[in-house]
From TrEMBL, chain B:
CDD domains: fer2. One of its GO terms (molecular function) is 2 iron, 2 sulfur cluster binding. Coiled coil: none annotated. Its cofactor is [2Fe-2S] cluster; [3Fe-4S] cluster. It holds the Pfam family Fer2_3. GO terms for cellular component: plasma membrane. This is 2Fe-2S ferredoxin-type domain-containing protein. PANTHER family: SUCCINATE DEHYDROGENASE [UBIQUINONE] IRON-SULFUR SUBUNIT, MITOCHONDRIAL (PTHR11921:SF29), SUCCINATE DEHYDROGENASE IRON-SULFUR PROTEIN (PTHR11921). Belongs to the succinate dehydrogenase/fumarate reductase iron-sulfur protein family. Residues 6-93 form the 2Fe-2S ferredoxin-type domain. GO terms for biological process: aerobic respiration; respiratory electron transport chain.
Length: 271, 173
């Protein structure tokens, strides 16, 4: 039996509206549970993931149903762009042609087909070693460098067999998203120069009150070309700082002021 | 103990037929059969179909037959086999094959849907802490008269006690 510290829960996730569970910027996408971000602040309390599922799972289902009903009734349901669908289908099927040795349609770097399992294992190892439980800037920079290399290689991920229940193919498809999420985690953790909740930095061990009101939001830097961006060496995301809404006064009043000094910014305390 | 190479025979195919294929795979200390199947996937058979989820013996996804007996791949330790033993993995015979070790278990879901879901009794103060708690040990609630059979039913068996209550006559609503 192997025993060791590991990643257990991710506080970050899909940016959602807390009341409707609707994802920001993606009409018709609703998210609840660990996949949604922002619900638990910097560290989830034990037992709260189940309450999260019950409360926000209900909201997500309710509003997804409402959304489907309303857009159907009014004829305003967004229609996916055919060109984007074709692009997505081609991207999904590419691992099969990589195996057959067909020339790539884009000017991607040439090389032998890559084993998706090997790439997955290297990605896991890099993230575990460099963006793990206790982090520091140089290690996360090194991780971003490795991610760039893995992204280039993942473009050549090849699989055998056909489309029916093919785990190698599933992994090849998943790799794209794993690499994207890994980059989001590494970039945001590098940007946040403090330690808070589940985020611990050896080079910034203290909690910094100035960071409390800030969320870091990752977006694809090129949403249109995100599926098959030919220049895979560059980072794929844009990082933004977003200020959180102030804490409601009635909630603030529940705490002793001395207790809040540790957490709140000076402006908040003087208000 | 050290790493060694084990001889596996794994059934590969689909509903139209298939057969056992031979593999030699590395085995390390403390590993279970599912670890070996994953290594097999990663190094020799990337499209080998196997379903798995919890790796902890809870979900049942990785059910297959090991040497002809139904087993959970994640709970079958490699240490129970001799090093020179050939280990044969085949899909469960109880379900139709989809591909390789994956079977169509939709029957389980049909059955699961037939089990009535637990609904807390109307007006039950402690409905969120377990069903029928108030009636345990002969204590009767003033809000609703429970049947005697329910009072004898242990609190944990939600489905049973609910069904009992539903059938029992003279229940207050």
């Amino acid at each position: 039996m192997e025993v060791g510290p590991t990643c257990h829960y991710v506080m970050g996730g899909v940016d959602v509206d807390p009341d409707t569970a609707a994802a920001t910027g993606v009409p018709g996408l609703f998210a609840a549970g660990e996949v949604a971000g922002g619900m638990h602040g910097s560290n989830r309390l034990g037992g709260n993931s189940l309450s999260d599922l019950l409360v926000f799972g209900r909201r997500a289902g309710l509003h997804a149903a409402r959304y489907a009903q309303e857009t159907a009734a009014s004829g305003t349901r967004p229609v996916p762009d055919e060109a984007q669908l074709d692009l997505a289908a081609a991207e999904a099927l590419r691992p099969f042609s990589a195996e057959a040795g067909e020339p790539e349609e884009t000017a991607g770097p040439a090389g032998p087909p890559e084993n998706p399992y090997t790439l997955h294992q290297e990605l896991q190892q890099s993230m575990n070693d460099l963006v793990g439980i206790i982090r520091k800037a140089e290690e996360m920079e090194e991780a971003l460098h490795r991610l760039a290399g893995l992204r280039v290689r993942a473009r050549r991920a090849g699989v055998e067999g056909h489309r029916q229940f093919n785990p190698g193919w599933h992994l090849a498809i998943d790799l794209r998203n794993m690499l994207l999420v890994s980059e989001c985690v590494a970039r945001a953790a590098l940007e946040r120069t403090e330690s808070r909740g589940g985020h611990t930095r050896d080079d910034c061990p203290e909690m910094d009150r100035a960071w409390r009101r800030l969320n870091l939001v990752c977006r694809l830097s090129d949403p249109s070309g995100g599926l098959a961006a030919p220049d895979a060496g560059h980072g794929q995301i844009r990082l933004e700082r977003r200020e959180m809404p102030p804490i409601r006064p009635d909630l603030l009043n529940l705490f002793e002021k001395d207790e809040l000094v540790k957490y709140l910014t000076d402006e908040e305390l003087t208000q | 103990m050290s790493a060694y190479e084990a001889h596996f025979r794994v059934w590969r195919g689909d509903q139209d037929g298939g057969g056992l294929k031979d593999f030699h795979v590395e085995v390390n200390d403390g590993e279970v059969v599912l670890d070996i199947v994953h290594r097999l996937q990663a190094t020799q058979a990337p499209d080998l179909a196997v379903r798995w989820n919890c790796k902890a013996g809870k979900c049942g996804s990785c059910s297959a037959e090991v040497n002809g007996r139904p087993r959970l791949l994640c709970m079958t330790r490699m240490s129970v086999f001799e090093r020179n033993e050939t280990i044969t993995i085949t899909p469960l015979r109880a379900f139709p094959v989809v591909r390789d070790l994956v079977t169509d278990v939709s029957f389980n879901y049909t059955k699961a849907r037939e089990v009535p879901s637990f609904v807390p009794r109307r007006g039950s103060v402690r409905a969120n802490t377990g069903c029928g708690r108030r009636t345990w040990g002969g204590r009767r609630s003033s809000a609703s008269a429970s049947s005697a059979s329910c009072a004898r039913t242990p609190a944990m068996w939600c489905g049973t006690s609910r069904r009992t209550r539903r059938r029992s006559p003279g229940r207050g609503s």
